[in-house]
Amino acid sequence: MNLKRSLGRDRHVDDADVNIIPVMNIFLLLIPFLLLTAAFVKIAVIELSLPTLSKNRAVQVQQQKKLVLVILAVKEKGFQVKSPGFKFDPVNRIGDKYNYAPLVQQLKQIKSKYPYAEDIIIAPEARVKYDIIIQVMDRCRETGFPNVSLSG
Fold this sequence. Notes:
Order of helices and strands: HHHEEEEHEHE
CATH class of the domain at 55-150: Alpha Beta
Number of strands: 6
CATH topology of the domain at 55-150: Nucleotidyltransferase, domain 5
Strand content: 15-25%
CATH architecture of the domain at 55-150: 2-Layer Sandwich
Distance between the termini: 87 Å
Helix content: 25-40%
Radius of gyration: 33 Å
Shape: elongated
Largest sheet: 6 strands, mixed
Number of helices: 5
Structural class: alpha/beta
């Protein structure tokens, strides 16, 4: 007598078919959803340049120039520029728009006294819109401050 047959292990097991229809349904819904949402993602790049100096150049610059710290506070009410040797009045908004002309004049005054100054720190308030910060950065670059840093 056969031991496997008596234990019942010799039964032939039929191969079962795998039902892939539910998986295909998931992919049918998932792929168009991912393609549609990917079209709404846009990436914006802001070019920031940080100051870099070689060792020999750094020694020469330190001997020729004093460090000038220019801070530009961007507030909901307007702008406030702080720099050594200057005391500027705040530049208030006119209605709903920021007044950039006096800001540019103040930055030009700083640049005329310190022509080698290239660094400026922009300190925006939390509620200031991102577009305003970009416009301020553009005005700083136009007046001769290419090295713009953001502070929180």
